[in-house]
Specification:
By secondary structure, this protein is of the alpha+beta class. The protein is 51% helix and 19% strand.
């Protein structure tokens, strides 16, 4: 049977191993996320402009209509589509949902359309 000193040393070793795995796991998650590269590609659509967002050069989001608004309206200007796409990329890089709110979209439209 282990004495009290041996049990304390064993607990310290086990705890150290757990902390080491937790830290290395968090580092791996960070590395995976930080290695992702997002690219915006603007595209002409039937009634205006849309955008594609590529993740690591692979299609990730294809948006032909203005998100968060009813109907199937496209962005009227290339610049408004670009600003919306860049806002989505910023959210992705910050580990947020890539969706745009109605308030965000209306602000973009008022300024750039």
């Amino acid at each position: 049977m282990l004495n009290t000193m041996s049990m304390t040393k064993l607990r310290i070793v086990v705890l150290s191993v757990i902390v080491l795995f937790a830290v290395s796991g968090a580092y791996c998650v960070y590395q995976i996320h930080s290695s992702e590269k997002y690219t915006v590609r603007l595209c002409r659509v039937e009634r205006g402009w849309g955008y594609d967002i590529l993740r690591n050069n692979k299609p990730f989001i294809h948006q032909e209509t203005i998100p968060a608004l009813l109907g199937n309206q496209s962005f009227k200007t290339c610049k408004s589509a670009e600003i919306a796409a860049k806002m989505v990329v910023k959210k992705l890089k910050n580990d947020q949902s890539p969706s745009l709110s109605q308030k965000e979209v209306i602000k973009i439209i008022k300024i750039y359309q």
